[in-house]
Each structure stands twice: as structure tokens, then as C-alpha cells.
Specification:
The structure is a single chain. The longest helix has 21 residues. Helices cover 62% and strands 0% of the residues. It folds into 2 domains: 72 residues, 434 Repressor (Amino-terminal Domain); 34 residues. The radius of gyration is 19 Å and the shape is elongated. The protein is mostly helical.
Length: 108
Amino acid sequence: MTNDEPLYERTFIREWREHRGISQIDLAKRVQMDRGNLSKLEAGKHPYNQRILEPIARELDVTVDTLITRRPSDPIPFAKSYLSATERERRQIDAAAEAILKANRDEG
């Protein structure tokens, strides 16, 4: 293992921080963390736990699981979109899905 390889599981903190336009120094201040430790955390050279990830997730306006599972550029999982939709939007989504499925069945 080289000195550049991460020691801990990957996170997407850096990607979310940059996506939100927040500097490493600002995020470190907001979560009351040493900037050097935040840098190591982003590089996979500092361990993380729930206590560390929760304030970071709050500041980046994401969930803790998002910080460790997806980049900002990744598509939003359909279920999450559906669950965050209003009742009216859900009816529209359901109708659109039914129409797509029906059209595909009729073609085949």
C-alpha cells in the first residue's frame, strides 16, 4: 500500500462540499473540526463515525447515507424522489408510470 491510498472506506464529502460551493476551511469551521482532519477524512486517511458525519451531512444538506453512497452527479434514486413528492405529484408519477408500462406491453 502506498502512502496515497485511502485507509478507510470512501466518502463523497469532498464532492458534496464542492457541489455546495463550500471551502474546506468553511466546512471545518461550521462543524467545529480541524481543517487538517477534514482533509484527511475526505482523502480516506481519517476514520469516520456517525458523530463526525451527522454535522457534516447537516451542513451539506444531505443525509449521512448520501455522504457515503453517492456523488452529487449520481441520479437520485427513484424511491427517494417518490417519497419526497407531494400526494398530487405521486398521482402524476403513478399515472405516467402506468402509461409507460401499458405502452411497452402494447408494443410487445
